[in-house]
Specification:
By secondary structure, this protein is α+β, with helices and mostly antiparallel strands. It has a domain of 249 residues. The chain is built from 12 helices and 6 strands. The strands form 2 sheets. The protein has a 4-stranded mixed β-sheet with strand order 1-2-6-3. Strand 1 and strand 2 form a beta hairpin. InterPro entries: At3g17800-like, DUF760. Pfam families: DUF760 (PF05542). This is UV-B-induced protein At3g17800, chloroplastic-like.
């Protein structure tokens, strides 16, 4: 196995990541025109992001790269630490309170329109919206963190704390836990994505996994952000795939033949859609009579899903890949900058070369894909209570 890392992902080089780009989706999208051929990362010098003595790479329960900036975020952190069973109730209460606070400021601004105080109330409404937006982003981040805690996976802390003598190493790898959240057909596509961005095959040996390689710091940032966007895209596209399947179900006639028909009652449509949003499997809506038939269908799902996704036109790709809200864009940007760079100055392109193992790179990619999937869930959850700003 070639232990030099080859990759090139065309993502923006500025601190502001462009969520409208579609060139983040490798693997099954590698044949599309927007996919760039890989370039080999040649090490020129070995940069130490942090000295061995000052490194503090602890994957503790609350040792996250990004710290909450709002009082709401800090409150939810304490609730999750001490009263975990009350976490979702607290989230709902805080979101409703934030929505009421923002709406009240807007109402006062509208009432003051045309008066001498109109400009003042407009400014107050703007500041209140900014304040609420920061708090809502903290809520979304805590919802994502909660999902990771459910599978007993701690987020990787700032990478600058995880470099010892010029070598980046992340342990434990938590591959099984991070893979357990996906259905088999989705997991196959994620494995293809891992192969595309870091060159590690799904059937690689233990020796290959722990082999050392080198990667430029800028490339590592591109891989991580691209993988978040890929996880977000997969979640959106998969739900669309399931929805289209449920909108046309077999209608068995007396002569034994079957044909695809659109769901005939609005109640059935709404039931299926609500189950999609809650993440339930298709068997909850369309039960299968025979286990043998179910197993046979499961084996075909991966190929069906891949054909479905490769059949997307550019408009459908952008619709599934684009982050729907400004808040989601900010969560992705802030988390990535905190992990890979600096929260204050953002992500900076650097040519420094980092030595690491393929196992550590795989851990980062799997975390990023899961982060993107959880970001989609958090965005849907929050938007149902607190209307997010459209991206």
């Amino acid at each position: 196995m070639d232990h030099s890392l080859s990759l090139h992902i065309s993502l923006p080089s500025t601190p502001k990541f462009n969520s409208n780009r579609s060139d983040f989706a490798p693997g099954f999208l590698a044949g599309f025109s927007f996919w760039k051929p890989p370039l080999t990362a040649r090490p020129r010098s070995l940069a130490v992001l942090a000295s061995a003595g000052s490194s503090h790479c602890e994957l503790g329960s609350f040792n996250t790269p990004l710290n909450p900036r709002s009082s709401v975020g800090k409150h939810l952190t304490r609730v999750l630490q001490n009263y975990r069973q009350l976490f979702h109730v607290s989230v709902q209460d805080e979101l409703k309170r934030l929505a009421d606070r923002r709406d009240a400021a807007v109402d006062r601004m509208l009432l003051a329109a045309g008066s001498d105080e109109a400009l003042l109330h407009r400014r107050i409404a703007q500041l209140k919206e900014q304040e609420c937006q920061i708090a809502v982003q903290d809520v979304m981040y805590m919802l994502i963190f909660y999902r990771f805690s459910e599978i007993r996976v701690n987020l990787v802390p700032k990478l600058s704390r995880c470099v010892y003598n010029g070598r980046l190493e992340i342990w434990p790898c938590k591959d099984w836990e991070l893979e357990s959240i996906y259905e088999s057909e989705v997991l196959e596509m994620i494995k293809e994505h891992i192969t595309a961005v870091i060159g590690l095959r799904a059937d690689s040996s233990v020796t290959d996994n722990w082999a050392m390689t080198t990667i430029k710091q800028a490339h590592l940032g591109h891989v991580y952000v691209a993988s978040i966007l890929y996880g977000y895209f997969l979640k959106s596209a998969l739900l669309r795939h399931h929805l289209e399947q449920r909108l046309a179900i077999p209608n068995v006639h007396r002569n034994g033949s079957s044909q695809k028909t659109f769901l005939q009652s609005p109640e059935m449509y709404l039931y299926g859609f609500r189950n999609l949003l809650s993440g339930r499997r298709r068997s909850n809506v369309l039960p299968v009579a025979h286990n043998q038939e179910f197993n046979s269908n499961q084996e075909m799902e991966a190929e069906k899903l891949k054909r479905f996704l490769t059949g997307f036109d550019s408009e459908a790709l952008q619709r599934c890949a684009k982050l729907k809200s400004k808040e989601a864009v900010n969560v992705l940007e802030n988390h990535s900058c905190a992990l890979l760079g600096n929260e204050e100055v953002g992500f900076v392109e650097r040519d420094e070369v980092i030595a690491t193992s393929f196992s550590s790179l795989k851990r980062l990619v799997l975390e990023a894909v899961a982060f993107g999937s959880f970001l989609w869930d958090a965005e849907e959850y929050v938007d149902a209570i607190y209307k997010l700003k459209e991206n």
